[in-house]
Specification:
There is one protein chain. By secondary structure, the protein is mainly alpha-helical. The protein has helices spanning 6-11, 47-57, and strands spanning 17-18, 27-28. The protein has a two-stranded antiparallel ribbon. The chain is globular, with a radius of gyration of 11 Å. The structure holds zinc ion (ZN) (2 copies). Residues 8, 11, 29, 31, 39, 41, 46, 48-49 line the site of one zinc ion (ZN).
């Protein structure tokens, strides 16, 4: 797993990690400043944003 980027730390303060309730491990946000905000993680491959996006999508 790649470490969180500086941009990731801004998006998921303080450490750039995102963990949903169903996850056993946190995901590091690897987004760059070029990413859209919010980012869906599909273009940049950020597993934190992808997980967040999938989690939101699966609520319905
Ligand atoms: Zn991200
Ligand atoms: Zn991104």
């Amino acid at each position: 797993m790649n470490g969180p980027t500086d941009e990731g730390k801004k998006r998921y303060p303080p450490n750039g990690l995102y963990q949903a309730k169903y996850m056993t491990q946190p995901h590091a946000c690897t987004c760059t400043a070029e990413c859209t905000d919010p980012c869906d993680g599909e273009d940049c491959g950020c597993s934190a944003c992808l997980a967040l996006h999938d989690g939101v999508a699966s609520i319905d």
